[in-house]
Amino acid sequence: MDLKGKVAIVTGAGSGIGHAIAERFAEAGAAVCVNYLGYEDEARALAARLPRALAVRADVSSAAEVAAMVECVRRELGSPTVLVNLRGTWLCSKYAVAHLKRSPYPSIVNAGSTSSWVAYPQNLAYGASKFAVAGLTRNLAVELAPYRIRVNNVAPGAIATPINRATLADDAKMRTLGRIVPLGRIGQPEEVAQVVAFLASDAASYVTGSTYYVDGGMVRYSQPV
Asked: In the annotation, is 126 catalytic?
């Protein structure tokens, strides 16, 4: 996947999926802003070893901090051309759009979840928030199409990340996952990163308003993990 010449902001890139996305983008030739709030050491270490990267601490629930982050990226790396929202979908999109409009091939990739499609017990707030991300993606795709800004959504299933540490350590839950995921295993952050890189690339130039499930087929089931 070729991302040469692109300047990407990846929010929530201190660990897990965001970390893998930032790394994959850099491998493909992009300059990368590694945004973090927690996992500071990991984020700074990642940015230090990438060819052209910047670690920026910003609380993406704060309009002032998001605006400052976007301006920092513009000043240090160039005007952003790609935005990957693992966190702060609305505010980050709001403040990045003015810069994306100036790019010939701009793209936003949001991070949803299979929880936007499958309902799980004790998952009300998270499921509702990810359903909102899917809806926001579709509406932004229509609103921003006149500016050639593509907006898509990636919906991971069970992925081996720090947030799923308890599940990974629970043999019973892992056996259940092996049973309800058609591919029979948990996914890796790098597998999500590959799909995000595709959506951010010019290879996906006619793709917008879509949700890509990276879940081993898990949305075909409705059993709780």
From this structure: yes
